[in-house]
C-alpha cells in the first residue's frame, strides 16, 4: 500500500493488497526461505508472464483487469518476501560493514539483482550463501535485532517497499514494450478503472 498509493486508484490497490495477503497461506512454505531460492525466483518469473498475458485485454475486459491485478498482488507478495525470508539483508549488511565500517547506513542496502540469483557466487560471504535462508523479518518482533541505526525488520520493509515500486514500474515498461499501440489504454485501465471480481476457480 505504501509503495503504490500514488500509482493506482484506491480500490484496485486494495484488491492488489488482498491478493498479496492471500498468497502466503496458499504457498504452503515461505517464499525464499532456506532452500527455496530457485522456486521463489521461478514463481516471480511465472507471475510476470501471467500478468503480461492477462494485461492484453485489461482495458477491454473488467475480468481480464481483475485477473491481471490479482497476479500483480501475488507477484508483489513474493518479491517482498525475498527481503524478509532470505538472508539477503544479513549478507548485504556484512558487505557494507566490511566496506564502510560498523557505522554504515543500513538504508544504503541496494535492491537485489534478480538476474544474478541463479549464480551461486552472487553475494556469497565466506561460507555463507544467499540460499541459506535467514531469520524471519515480517514483523517488528521477528526483526527486532538492531542493524546499525535501524532494525532488520525496518530495513527489510524499506527494501520490500522499494522493490514493489520497481516491480510495478517494470510491469508497466513491459506492457509498453509488448503492446505498444494499446499500452496507454491498458495502463490507464489498470490504474484507474475498477476491476470486476471473478470466481477463484476462474483464475489460473
Can you offer a commentary on this structure?
With 204 residues, the protein is mostly helical. It has helices at 10-27, 37-55, 62-85, 88-100, 152-178, 183-192, and strands at 146-147, 150-151. A two-stranded antiparallel ribbon has the order 1-2. Strand 1 and strand 2 (150-151) form a beta hairpin. The chain is elongated and about 55 Å long. The two termini are 24 Å apart. The mean pLDDT is 89.
Question: How do you describe this structure in short?
Answer:
With 204 residues, the protein is mainly α. It is 54% helix and 2% strand.
Secondary-structure map with pairings?
Layout: H1 10-27, H2 37-55, H3 62-85, H4 88-100, E1 146-147, E2 150-151, H5 152-178, H6 183-192
Helix pairs in contact: 1-3, 2-3, 2-5, 3-5, 5-6
List its traits.
two-stranded antiparallel ribbon, 2 strands
Order of helices and strands: HHHHEEHH
Largest sheet: 2 strands, antiparallel
Class inferred from helices and paired strands: mainly alpha
Q: What is the CA-atom radius of gyration, in angstroms?
A: 18 Å
Amino acid at each position: 500500500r505504501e509503495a503504490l498509493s500514488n500509482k493506482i486508484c484506491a480500490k484496485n490497490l486494495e484488491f492488489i493488497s488482498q491478493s498479496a495477503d492471500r498468497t502466503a497461506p496458499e504457498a504452503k512454505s515461505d517464499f525464499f526461505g532456506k532452500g527455496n531460492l530457485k522456486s521463489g525466483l521461478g514463481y516471480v518469473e511465472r507471475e510476470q508472464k501471467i500478468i503480461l498475458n492477462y494485461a492484453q485485454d485489461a482495458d477491454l475486459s473488467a475480468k481480464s483487469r481483475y485477473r491481471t491485478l490479482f497476479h500483480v498482488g501475488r507477484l508483489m507478495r513474493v518479491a517482498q518476501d525475498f527481503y524478509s525470508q532470505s538472508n539477503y539483508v544479513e549478507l548485504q549488511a556484512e558487505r557494507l560493514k566490511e566496506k564502510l565500517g560498523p557505522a554504515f547506513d543500513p538504508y544504503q542496502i541496494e535492491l537485489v539483482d534478480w538476474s544474478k540469483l541463479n549464480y551461486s557466487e552472487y553475494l556469497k560471504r565466506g561460507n555463507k550463501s544467499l540460499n541459506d535462508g535467514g531469520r524471519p523479518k515480517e514483523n517488528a518482533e521477528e526483526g527486532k535485532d538492531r542493524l546499525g541505526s535501524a532494525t532488520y525488520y525496518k530495513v527489510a520493509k524499506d527494501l520490500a517497499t522499494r522493490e514493489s515500486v520497481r516491480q510495478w514500474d517494470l510491469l508497466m515498461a513491459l506492457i509498453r514494450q509488448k503492446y505498444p499501440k494499446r499500452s496507454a489504454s491498458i495502463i490507464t485501465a489498470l490504474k484507474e478503472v475498477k476491476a470486476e471480481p471473478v470466481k477463484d476457480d476462474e483464475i489460473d
